[in-house]
Amino acid sequence: MIISxxxxxxxxxxxxxxxxxxxxxxxxxxxxxxxxxxxxxxxLVQVHPGPIGLLxxxxxxxxxxxxxxxxxxxxxxxITLIYRMTAEGGLPLRLKVEINSREHxxxxxxxxxxxxxxxxxxxxxxxxxxxxxxxxxxxxxxxxYQRKKGRDLFDLWQALTTSSVNLQSVVNxxxxxxxxxxxxxxxxxxxxxxxxxxxxxxxxxxxxxxxxTDTAFDFQNAAEQVMSQLLPLIPGEPWQGNTTV
Length: 245
Hints:
Helices cover 43% and strands 21% of the residues. It has helices at 2-11, 14-19, 25-31, 53-67, 133-146, 150-162, 167-180, 187-197, 201-204, 219-229, and strands at 20-23, 41-46, 71-75, 78-86, 92-100, 110-118, 123-131.
C-alpha cells in the first residue's frame, strides 16, 4: 500500500507527471497484470533530457512529509532515494525510488493508466504515465538477459500466460533497447544465457520470497514458454546446447 500511495502522490504532481514515466516490475503489477508478487521499489525514467534537480525536489516534496528523509545515492545515469519507515506493529519497511536519467526515448510511446486505490489506510487516484505493455516486457527481456534475477523470468511468464501480448512487438522493443545501449545479442546467445541461469541458485532463489501465498511457479515451464515464444523471434540460429534444465 505504501507503493500505491507513493505513486498517487508522485503522479499527482504536475512537474513529475510531465517529466517522469513509471517502468519495471512494479509497473507491470500495478497497472497491467494480476498482483501475484510483491513489489520492492518504484522505477522511474526521465523522459526528457535536462537537469534533474527540479524533479528531485518535486519527488521529495510529495514523499518526505510522510515517509521521512531519504538516503540518496547517485551513479552515472541513475539516482536512488531510499526511504525507511516502520509499519503498524513495528515492522521495518523500505521503499526505493530509482530514477533513470539516461534513457530519454520510447519505442511505442507513452500512455496514461488510471491507478485507483481504495482501502481503510488510503484512498486516492492518479493518471500514471507509463509505457505500453509490450515495451515494458521488452525491457523485462533486457533485464532477464543482463542480470541474475529470477523475477524477470517470472514476470515474462506471467504476462505470457495472463495477458494478450504481441510477441513480435515485445522482441522488437527488446532489440531496440539493446541497440540503444550499444549491445547486440543473437538468439543463441540469449538461449545459452537463460539456460545457464536456470542452474544458478542466485537466479532461482530470487523469486520465492516475492510470491504471494499460493502462487505456483515452475522455473522450467516458464523458461520453456519464453524460449518457445519469444527467443525464436530474435535474429540468428538457435543455440545447439541444452535449452532447458
